[in-house]
Amino acid sequence: MGVPGFGALLLLLLRAVPCPGQLSGDTVFQPSFIHMSGPRVNSFFLGNSSGVNFSIILSPRDAETGKLQLVNCNGSKRAGDWNLVVTPGVNTSKVTVSLSRTLELCLPNATKCCPSPLCMVETLQVLACRGSVMLAQLLIQAEIFANSSFAGNVSENATIIPNQAFKPLGSCPCNLTAGACDVRCCCDLECTPDLQQLFSGSCFPGVFGGDVNPPYDQLCSSQSMEYTPEWFPFLCVQSSLDNTPFLGYFYHGSISTPKVPSFKIPLQTSPGKPFTGYREGDPIITEEDEYFTVPQQSMAGQCVGNAPVAYLHNFDVKCLTNLESYKEGLPHDVRINTGTADFIQQNVLYRAITDRGKFITESENLLAAEVLCQNVTFAEHYKFIWKDKNIEQVNVTVFHGSLCDGEILTQRFTVEFLSLNSTHGEELFENPGYQVGKPVKAANLNASDPLGSLNIWQPAGRGLCASATDRPVLFGVDSYSGCILEVDINEDCSFLRGNVTEKLNALVQATHIGKRDNSSYSDLNDWVEIIRLDPFSSNVSTGSFKGICPDIPANLNIRIIFAKVGAVQGIPQQEILAVQISYSTVLWQFQCGLGCRNTLSFLPITASVQFIEVPAQPPLPVTRYQKIYAEFDCNQNEVCWPQLLYPLTRFYTGEPYSQCLAKGLLLAFLVLLATIMSNPWFSKLWNR
After folding, report:
1. Phi, psi at residue 596, to the nearest 5°?
2. A Pfam family in this protein (predicted)?
3. Which pLDDT tens digit goes with each residue over 425-476?
4. Contact 73, 129 (CB under 8 A)
5. What is the pLDDT of residue 227?
6. Which spans in 23-144 are helix H?
7. Lowest-pLDDT range of 220-234, 320-334, 634-648
8. pLDDT single digits (tens) 158-206
9. 33 class by beta-carbon count within 10 Å (0-12 exposed, 13-18 middle, 19+ buried)
10. What is the pLDDT of residues 636-649, one digit of tens each?
11. What number of other Cβ atoms are within 10 A of residue 460's Cβ?
12. Contacts of 144-147 spanning 24+ positions with Cβ under 8 A
């Protein structure tokens, strides 16, 4: 014997327990009232169904009273679109009422469907009779909506989009509203003739108004040109509107790819092994044929963790991080490609940080029990020992320390390339020229101590000149910096000019600039003299006026001209040719604040450095042949003489070449015939 199912147990309980108001042994529908929202509903007839006749009746309401009309036991098991099925059982019978029609919304010209979303609202009665005596009654209120999902047959016919080169996709672009007439859209087929009469005189013109294939200017029958050239209509195109440049058919001929620089950075795939050695700027490769990366600053000022290290490019960066966003970099057991397919191991030295205050810039006040700390990397210093195009040795110093939750760490990463011939920490490059990012070498050859400097400001704090520091000018790096000078309203203009000039001249403590990075102080030919252009002064007096001073030299302009004069082992050798220093003057005027209570104003002074690259040798002058040939270059001139007979050339693709050639020969014959007939001797010969 199996365990009885849940349905059987439910039927036994329903039979054993009488409903409220039902006497033991009476027959009744359970439930006796159903609100129906689907196509099928079930109920149970409790009692002996032997000799009981079941029927279903559509019960219309009385129009006056709203009550259901009286019914009798003469019905059947089918009424309209409804079917009644009774499954008899022991003292319990299952009664099922189902709908035999579809619940889909009607398509155009369709029948036996739902004309509206609320598909059916009807009242049903199911009667249980023994003879003419009614034993029980079931009332069903049906309120059924149409199906929102499509369950019909899907057509295999796909929408065919025409080729845009030959046929326009939209023949009426101004038809924007489906099922309604768009005002002023004369091509809208939904606009009746009566509606079109209201705006027939103000229809949308052009392509938007439905004229998607207008006559073009080169067409012989076109009269829409505002400025008709002299050659029209002698040189024009005679073709149908199906062959039009608005559809692009005229541009199916040979075209040239425009050489427009792309703003996208090309995706670098496998870096490849540099078996021939490294050149300046080449990324350093690891044994796994991947880039050797060290965190560096991007152009946006943010730190990039997977930035490749470039050969012979030094850098010193600082990156902010915390314990939550901290990530370990490239492991130090990675072997590096020397440039000749050999691999070397990094020499790593680990040290502990003694003074955390130099690296921890901010700390939140947290309870000691809540602080989570971790041993992390505070700084990494890489030294690459190189010779020729190869890397000989890599020394790494790693500083570790404890970083706690809530603290902000300033990590430092430095990369320095040292020549194998370096002595006492001073690098002697085998390439005598400048490398990008190296300090420009300056000298004061008129003093006993020739060591000079060429610097720009590095403001700090409020940006005042009193607290600003300086840094050296780096070769190949255009820079712009400045600071703010506090000026009193009673400041003497001559004193102000001298003070500003003194601060600007303090940046250039040199008379000469080294042509190369290894310029010798004892050889004057290794240096170029700085050309100084004194600031312009108009000697204009302001009289008794206060708070205004003209011709203040507030801008220092440093222009450095350099050239690539050769290469040493594949590395470009760059040399400085000339240096010029000039000043730009401004009119300082006291800026009065609210109430003019403050007697101090601010004067911003700036310094800019610009590197200008010129050819190492003057370019060759343009020959007379090149000047004449430039007149016939179609890419440089609007008038292209080689394409004078354009329809007869291979460039014209509007018609087959054989037809163009035949028409061209016919045109040449007519021109020759007109020339012969215009001569006087032809008229004499004709008269004879």
Report:
1. 55, 35
2. TCTN_DUF1619
3. 444 444 577 888 888 999 988 888 888 889 998 766 678 888 888 888 989 8
4. yes
5. 60
6. none
7. 220-234
8. 566 666 666 666 778 898 888 788 889 999 988 888 888 888 888 998 8
9. exposed
10. 666 676 677 777 77
11. 11
12. 144/36, 144/37, 144/38, 144/39, 144/99, 144/103, 144/119, 144/120, 145/37, 145/103, 145/117, 145/118, 145/119, 146/103, 146/104, 146/105, 146/114, 146/116, 146/117, 146/118, 146/119, 147/103, 147/104, 147/105
CA distance 195 to 203: 12
- Render pLDDT for 473-528 as a digit per residue (tens, 0 to 9): 989 889 888 898 888 888 888 888 889 999 999 999 999 999 988 888 888 888 99
Asked if 247 and 213 touch (Cβ cutoff 8 Å), the reply is yes
> What are the DSSP calls for 188-210, one per residue?
-TTS-HHHHTTSGGGPPPTTTTT
Helix (H) or strand (E) holding 6: helix 6-16
Contact 394, 385 (CB under 8 A): yes
The pTM (predicted TM-score) of the whole model is 0.40
**Amino acid at site 60:** P
Secondary structure in 3-state letters for 93-105: EEEEEEECCCCCE
Gyration radius of the chain over CA positions: 48
Maximal C-alpha separation, the chain: 140
**Tokens read off for 573:** 């050798």
Is residue 412 within 8 A of residue 453, CB to CB? The reply is no
Q: How would residue 248 be classed by pLDDT, with cut points 50, 70 and 90?
A: low
Distance CA 414, CA 380 (A): 7
10 Å CB burial of residue 24 (0-12, 13-18, 19+) is exposed
CA atoms within 13 A on the CB side of 37: 1
Residue for token pair 């069903």: 140
How many other CB atoms sit within 10 Å of the CB of residue 520? 12
Strand partners, 471: 456
As a whole number of angstroms, the distance between CA 685 and CA 133 comes to: 130
Taking the CA atoms of 463, 466, 471 and 473 in sequence, report the sign of the dihedral they define. positive
Contact predicate 294/307, CB 8 Å: yes
Q: How far apart are CA 183 and CA 166, in angstroms?
A: 29
164-185 burial, b for 16+ CB within 10 Å, e for fewer? eeeeeeeebbbbeeeeebbebb
Q: Quote the tokens at residue 94.
A: 């299952």
Closest to 86 in 3D by CA, of 100, 96, 98, 99: 96
> How many Å apart are CA 435 and CA 565, to the nearest integer?
13
Question: So what's the pLDDT on residue 375?
Answer: 87
CA-CA distance, 228 to 217, in Å (whole number)? 9
Instruction: Tell me the C-alpha to C-alpha distance, in Å, between residue 44 and each of 15, 25, 128.
Output: 10, 15, 11
pLDDT score for 436 = 82
For 70-190, strand residue ranges (E) read: 78-79, 82-87, 92-99, 118-130, 133-145
For residue 160, what pLDDT is reported?
67
Q: CA quadruple 299, 305, 311, 316: dihedral positive or negative?
A: positive
Phi, psi of 35 (to 5 degrees): -95, 110
Q: Find, among 481, 511, 485, 489, the residue nearest to 500 by Cα.
A: 485
Alpha helices in 158-293 (DSSP H): 193-196
56: how many CB neighbours lie within 10 A of its CB? 23
35 strand-pairing partners = 141
pLDDT digits (tens, 9 = 90+) for 43-92: 988 888 888 888 888 876 666 666 777 777 887 888 888 888 888 887 88
Q: Which of 539, 551, 546, 534 is nearest to 492 (CA)?
A: 546
Give the C-alpha separation, 97 to 120, whole Å.
15
Mean pLDDT of 551-573: 85
Q: Are 71 and 30 in contact (CB under 8 A)?
A: no
Q: What is the pLDDT of residue 620?
A: 76
